[in-house]
Amino acid sequence: MDRMSRNKGEHGRQTHQVLQNTPLDLIETGKSLKVQAERPHLVSLGSGRLSTAITLLPLLEGRTTLGSEGTDIPLQGPGITAQHCYIENQAGIITLYPCGHQCSVDGLPITKPYRLTQGCMLCFGQSAFFRFNHPEEALRMKSMLPGGSQGLSTTKTLPTGKDPALIFMQYDKATSNSWTEQFL
């Protein structure tokens, strides 16, 4: 087995392990498809114009390190350091520790530990952008709105034993105007 195949295999096993620990829902809303996780996570807003993937980065209980070298979440771009910052999840309370490096939340520079809240926008260095999602917090916020948390979308939970990385989604406009999933 060559090095590239071995690395892909190892990466695939790592990805599968993370996905097993982070249940995902697929939500169909007309002509769009939403992917939703039930635990706190970051959503990468891409690594440039050529990025076509949506990346969810779970923030599991404990410390998650971010930076350009040897961290849980690798970052690239101007202003990123090897051990740039870390995010700590303590019983669902998520705190960003900037470690003296360039971090901002909703456009404001952060120099001290900062508790993250649902929907805030993060920037590390000058160009690594993320959105922070905290599904439990979002649900509490929605329940305080007039009308509660009622929605019009259909949630589809992945069948047990199916690998979410092997889902092929197909939009069939001719027959049903809806998305169908096929498990490879």
Automatic annotation (TrEMBL):
An example GO BP is: regulation of microtubule cytoskeleton organization
Q: Where is the FHA domain?
A: 65-125
One GO cellular component this record assigns the protein to is:
basal cortex
- InterPro entries attached to this UniProt entry: FHA_dom, PH-like_domain, SMAD_FHA_dom_sf
- Chain segments carrying region Disordered: 1-21
One Pfam family from the UniProt entry? FHA
Which residue intervals are annotated with compositional bias (Basic and acidic residues) in the record? 1-13
Coiled-coil region(s) at which residues? none
Name of the featured protein: FHA domain-containing protein
